[in-house]
Amino acid sequence: MLAAVEICREIGAAGAFKPYRSREVMPGSLGRSDMIDFIRNAVSTYFHPTSTCKMGHSPMCVVDHELKVHGLDGLRITDASIMPNVTSGNTNEPSVMIGEKLAELIRSK
Ligand SMILES: Cc1cc2nc3c(=O)[nH]c(=O)nc-3n(C[C@H](O)[C@H](O)[C@H](O)COP(=O)(O)OP(=O)(O)OC[C@H]3O[C@@H](n4cnc5c(N)ncnc54)[C@H](O)[C@@H]3O)c2cc1C
């Protein structure tokens, strides 16, 4: 993230943007430890946390392809937590699709 902030500052300071900017508002040129503090205070989830109960079969996975929790009977998970990775678009619609897919799966049994 330090590198990402520096790249953004570099782009913002580029000559090509001179006609469009006056000054850098934040974070400004900070030392490493102040920049780390700035990043820690500025980062957020951007409201799309996912994948804490990943679907799959590696040791880090929690549910199988039918969303059944590995090693437990009678428990499924159907929400954004089962996404193997965060989606490239927003997460609400994929969450609805996950729920509908499981409803369909249960109804078809
Ligand atoms: C501010 C904000 C803006 C967003 N904007 C968008 C957007 O514009 N577009 C988009 O695609 N996505 C958006 N998202 C993301 C989207 O809302 C989520 O990805 C989606 O709702 C995830 O669905 P979910 O079912 O996994 O979790 P949630 O929708 O969080 O549902 C979890 C449910 O479980 C309930 N619960 C929690 N603990 C318990 C418990 N112990 N017992 C019983 N019930 C419990 C909660 O009350 C809640 O109803 C936004 C998220 C936020 C926070």
Helix content: 25-40%
Query: How many beta-strand elements?
Result: 0
Order of helices and strands: HHH
Mean pLDDT: 96
Uncertain segments are none
Strand-pairing-aware structural class: mainly alpha
Beta content comes to under 5%
Measured between the Cα atoms of the first and last residue, the distance is: 47 Å
How many domains is the backbone divided into? 2
Count of helical stretches: 3
Largest sheet features: none
Shape annotation: elongated
Q: What small-molecule ligands were found?
A: flavin-adenine dinucleotide
**CA gyration radius, whole angstroms:** 21 Å
If you had to describe this structure to a student in words, what would you say it looks like?
This protein is mainly alpha-helical and 109 residues long. The protein folds into two domains: 2-42, no CATH class; 48-109, no CATH class. 36% of the residues lie in helices and 0% in strands. It contains three helices and no strands. The chain has helices spanning 2-13, 32-42, 92-107. The protein is elongated and about 65 Å long. It starts with a helix and ends with a helix. The relative contact order is 0.11. The mean pLDDT is 96. The structure holds flavin-adenine dinucleotide.
